[in-house]
Amino acid sequence: MARKPMMAANWKMNKTVREAQDYVAALLPRAEDSEGVDIAVFVPFTCLHEVARMVEDSDVVAGAQNFYPEDSGSYTGEVSAPMLLDLGVGAVVVGHSERREIFGEDDELVARKTAKAIESGLLPVVCIGETKEERDGGQMWDKVSGQVKRVLEEVPDDVGGEQIVFAYEPIWAIGTGDTASPEDAQDAIGQIRDLLRDLKGDGFADSVRILYGGSMKPENVDEIIAQEDVDGGLVGGASLDVESFTALIGATQGSDWPVAE
Ligand code: 13P
Predict the structure, then answer these.
(1) In this structure, which residue's CA is closest to atom 7 in ligand 1?
(2) What is the pLDDT of residues 21-55, one digit of tens each?
(3) Is 154 marked active-site?
(4) Could you give the domains of the chain?
(5) Which of 40, 131, 172, 238 is 20 to 30 A from 88, comparing alpha carbons?
(6) What is the C-alpha separation between 4 and 97, in angstroms, rounded?
């Protein structure tokens, strides 16, 4: 089964509303002919209203970088799924390693957020990945498979693979310029797909998209996305510049993509 690739920008804690407007205004004309690739921009909450408004009639999906899995209530500082849907947001990053490592999100919370996003009609992009110490210590697969299994415990049986996206982001490759080799990316993502096949069956495993994240950039994108099981990218640093992000989209889509002037 052919999966539609996805190229996703994760701006993290970057860009004012004005900067977001300039970026999206430049992205939209390039995204007009986005057949063959899904484009998502995961922006700070402060930009979300404006970005969602700007992309409303386009194929670009406005995404949030986080949310809290209750609809409303006394959760100071948090934002709910209905609030995101109200803005026209279509997707949300869940369990990014920065949220896990800096803000203490554990597997249980990540699993609850994933289930709540799906139930609410948001596409969760669920991040998983190991630290350098875990990789060097031979615990990479224990960590990653444990993260995947915990998420699936909360996902109802009737949820299809197209309702969730995983992003394999080895923590040692995030923001470091140190990218996983294409073979390492394929190896990890292929194993994740095999695990999903065991746990959820062929239909799920063949339709679920698994992205690579970690210092993806125009110079290395071709080799990484050429790997059989890699369905696109979740990109931090190289997504902040719209030229560089559109180059990544173009590489994902193939040679038909209109090249930046
Ligand atoms: P970089 O592309 O900056 O390494 O960040 C990857 C990432 O964390 C995307 O979510």
Answers:
(1) 236
(2) 999 999 999 998 768 899 999 999 999 999 999 99
(3) no
(4) 6-253 (3.20.20.70)
(5) 238
(6) 25
